[in-house]
Design goal:
This protein is mainly α. The chain is built from three helices and no strands.
Length: 83
């Protein structure tokens, strides 16, 4: 039995070759979610809601959009593997 000194390939680890691009994309996703949260909070406040209700609405919008953005990543990776 021989041991290979080669590092594992991207197919072995299940990650893409562009691992360095993960941090900027994560930052873009979080900033987008923050923008959605601010817009929702602002619109709720303009609609006559109390500041607490606007803050809660913005927090819910942030959580929802962040989860949606993070949920899209595995789907895109699976679609790329099928090619």
């Amino acid at each position: 039995m021989t041991l290979s000194a080669d590092p594992p390939t991207s197919a072995d680890t299940g990650t893409s070759t562009s691992d360095g691009a993960w941090i900027p994309w994560l930052l873009v996703m979080l900033l987008f979610s923050l923008l959605v949260a601010v817009c929702v909070g602002f619109l709720k406040r303009l609609g006559g809601s109390t500041p607490v209700d606007a803050l809660l609405g913005g927090g819910a919008a942030f959580g929802g959009s962040a989860l949606l953005c993070l949920g899209v990543v595995p789907v895109v990776q699976q679609l790329r593997r099928r090619r």
